[in-house]
Amino acid sequence: MLLQSIVSRIHRNQRLANFCTLKNAGGSSLSTPENGPAIQFPPEKEYVIDYLVSSCGLSPEKAISASKRVHFERPDKPNSVLNFLEKQGFTKTQIADLVNGRPEFLLSNPEKSFLPKLQFFSRFIGVSQNDIAAIVSRYPTLLTRSVEKRLAPSYDYLKGIIGIQKTESLFRRGSWSFGHFDPKIVTPNVDFLREIGVPSSLIEFSLSQYPEIFCLKHDEFREVVEEVKGMGFDPSKSMFVLAIHVRKGKCNLALYDRCYDVYSKWGWSRDDILMAFRKHPNCMICSEKKITTVLKFVVNELGREARSVAKYPNIIFFNMERRIVPRWSVMHLLSTKDLIRKDWSLCTALCPAEKFFLDRYVMRFTNELPELHDFYLSKKTKAVEA
């Protein structure tokens, strides 16, 4: 039986082998190697797992997980769904992604549940069949939304504010928010921004770039807007809506708190973090690894306080190998030769455009150090080769 080959494949998968073993005991079961309780696979579940692997293209691991969310004993209805998706231009990989995300779709009536949405995307938004398949397979929630109650009103609302082209672009990007967009929730939030002086052009920009923030409940939206305003952001500037996005954008809240903790561990005060956030809001949704790498280099190699980066938070986003290390190498060499001050400014060295840095710190000293230009290029070349 196919499930036995699944069992065998999972046994051969080293990652899963360290976690569990599968065995057959009057059906199939999943048990931990430490003699933990086994999870029984009754015959009807075996059938679903087999089908998800052989017909839908799911991996054994994903099939076992997906089987918890769908149940059927005959292939008629799932087959009709798969046939429908194939006729609509979905590739095997896209079908696997769609079923993995929403296994319950296999029990749908595709002509009734899916076709109206796909026709709306094609006829009203003007998206090609291939693009629709790619977008929907990434964001299957779109197929759960009513055309009349959600998709069409959202499209009309956005079209009225940001225009047809930007609305279509928003959908083509496969925006998560398009499936969650509700004009009844969005309208009070847009009106509130207008009340506090956010220009219409900036509201349009925000809706096209950060639509998910407008999907917040109004009380929550007002709270974060007032918070950002209280931090000193100007409602008439683009940095204002970027700060709102960083604070409350999809998946950003946990990142913000994590970044706050990382900076604090490096000795940044609350004022330091606020200053950096005001200058470059995205510094609060950067990866912990990136922050740590840059600050460690600043402290250990440059001999500066980690707090000094708070004044120039864009440094966090510079490439270590292609920018920070090569430029530091030049500045370090120049300072050891007493050609520049040893307490050179981080901003002066790391922030300027490449041409400015070359002119001011490389070409300017080629008489004293003829090899300086080649030295600098060698540092950048090593980064490219790496």
UniProtKB/TrEMBL annotation:
Entry keywords, A to Z: Transcription, Transcription regulation, Transcription termination, Transit peptide
Q: Which InterPro entries match?
A: MTERF, MTERF_sf
A Pfam family it matches: mTERF
Biological processes per GO annotation = DNA-templated transcription termination
Q: Which domain of life is it from?
A: Eukaryota
Q: Which family does it belong to?
A: Belongs to the mTERF family.
Enumerate the PANTHER family for this protein: CGI-12 PROTEIN-RELATED, TRANSCRIPTION TERMINATION FACTOR MTERF15, MITOCHONDRIAL-LIKE
Name of the protein described by the UniProt record: Mitochondrial transcription termination factor family protein
